[in-house]
Automatic annotation (TrEMBL):
Protein species of origin: Strongylocentrotus purpuratus (Purple sea urchin)
LDL-receptor class B repeat segments: 243-285, 286-329
This protein's name: CUB domain-containing protein
UniProt-listed Gene3D superfamilies: Spermadhesin, CUB domain, TolB, C-terminal domain
Domain CUB: 27-134
Amino acid sequence: MLVSSSVWSTIFLILSTLLTLGSSQRCGGSIEAGAGVIRSSNYPDGYPASDCVWIIDSGAENRIRLKFQVRDCSGDSLWMYDGDGTVGVPLLGQYCSTVPPTSIDSSGRFVTIRFMSVGGAENNQGFVISYESIDVALGSRVIWSEIEPSTGSVRLNSVPADPVVMLKPDGTVQDTIVTDFYFMAPSGNWTALETRYGERELIWSDGLRNVMIKGSMGSDRSVKTYASTSPSVLGVAVDWLTGNVYWTDAAYDWIIMHDASGTRNVLIIDEDLDIPTGLAIHPSRGYLFLTDSGSRPKVERSNLAGGGRLQLVSTNILRPSGITVDYETDLVYWVDSDPSYNHMEVCNLEGANRRTLMFSPINLGLFDLTISGNYIYTTAKESQKLIVLVKDSGQQLFNHDLQYTPYSIVTYAPDVQPQEYSPCSSNPCSFLCVGGGPNGYTCLCGNGFLLKEDGRTCEKEGTIDPPQYFVASRSKLCRYPINFHDIAFSMVTNFNASCFLEERIHAVAIAVDVEDGLSFFSDFETKEIGMTTLRDGAPVQIIMGGVRDVQGSYDYNLES
C-alpha cells in the first residue's frame, strides 16, 4: 500500500507543530537510533486524543527492528511505514486492529510510525514499541579482547556469532576461520570487555593506562571515558537501558558504576569482596550478578544500586571468573578457572537448579563466556583457545586455536540486549539513576552528598565517606581518594586535594575512627591532641593538652 502526497502533507504539518510544543505535551518527533522505546501518551493510564508521528533514523548501512512490548489500542490506528515519510513510502502494517509479527524490520535506514486516536481512550493502556538499530555492515559477531604474549600488543578480535557457518557440511570445523579485528594497540592490558549494541559501542578496560575506553563500531574512533582504575579491572557490564557502566576492580575490592559519559560515578559495593572478577546485568529484573574468586569464592546477586545482596552459590566453587545471563530463560552461567578443575556451571536467578555444563581436568584457563543463540562461546587463556558449546547440553561443538591470549568475550548482535522502557529516561534524578525501586528507578548520590526525602535530589552533606587517605599537612588536614596512586593525571586536569580542616598551626599525626566518624590529630606547636568529626568544617575539641612530640598515632579505648 502506498501513501498519497496529500496524506503525507497532513502528517508533516502535524509533526512540525508537535515539535514546537513543550516536552510534556509532545508526542512524536525525530529519533536517531540507537535503541529505545516509543510509548503512547500517559501510558499505561489510557491516552488522550492524539495524532503523533515518529520518524526513526538508524544511520547509513543500518536497518531498524521494531517489536511490540504492549499493544492495547483497539478502535484506534497505529501505522508503520518503511521509510522517512516521502511520497510513495510502503505501509508495513496497521497494528491496532491486526496482530503484529514477532518483529518488524525495515528495508532501509528509516521507519515512520503514526498513531491516531480521535477521542482518546481511558480504558486502553496504549502501546510500547521497542526499536533497535541493526548493524548490517558488520553483521552479528562474537568479539573478544586478546593480548599477544611476547610483544604485549592488544586487539579486539571476532568471528561470526552463528558458529554453524564455521562448520563444514560434515559438521567438522573449517580448516581456516577468518577473524576480523576492530581496535588494536601496540601495548595495553585489555582484560574486560562489554558491548552496547544499539549504540554500536564497545566498552573495555585498559589496565596498562588505568582507564575505561569506549569505541564506536565501524570506525577506529575511541575515547577514554573514565580514568583512575587499577590494572586489575577484570569485569565490566553495561545497563543498556540507561547507559550506566559497572566494573570490578580487584585491587581495591570494589565495584564502581559511572554514567554513559563517564563524568559521574558512584561506589556501588565495597564490602565483603575479596577478588571481584566477572559482572553481568539483567536490567529488566533490576539485577547485578558478580563473581568473587578470593578467599570466600561465590556467585552473588544484588540490585542495580548494590543493595539487596544475595549469595547464589558459595559451596563447591573455587575460582569463578566470567559470568553471563540468558535473558530468554533467566539462567545465569559462569566459568570456574581453578587449575585442577576447569568447568562451566548454570543456575537460575535464585541460585537453584545448579548443574555443570562442562568440565576439564586439564587447565584450560577458562576466563569468560557469552551466549549467542543456542550456543555458548568461552575463552581459554592457558590453552589460547576459543571454545564453542551447545547451550542446553554443554556438548562441545568445536574449539579454535588462537594466536593471542583471549580474555573477555561478548556477543554483538540484535535482540541480545532486549529493549524496554526505563523510568530513568525521564531524568528523574539530580545525579545518577539506576533501574529498580518502588517507582521503577533509584537515585544515587556521589561521595559527600545525601539523597533528600524526595528520593530524587542530592544535597551536600559534608560527610567524608571511606575509603580515603588522610594526611596531616602542617596547617591543614586533607583527604585523598584511596586510588590516588592510580589516578591518570593526564586526563584528570581539575584534581585538587580536599582539605576538611584548616587553620592548624603545626599538625603532625592523624588517626581516623571510621566507625564512629571521628578524626584525631596532634599539633606539634600547641602540644595538644584534637578531635573532630569527619565532616567538612567541623569544630575541633581538644581532648588532651601538654603532650610532648607526638609524631605518630595509635588506636586506644577511651573507656579503659
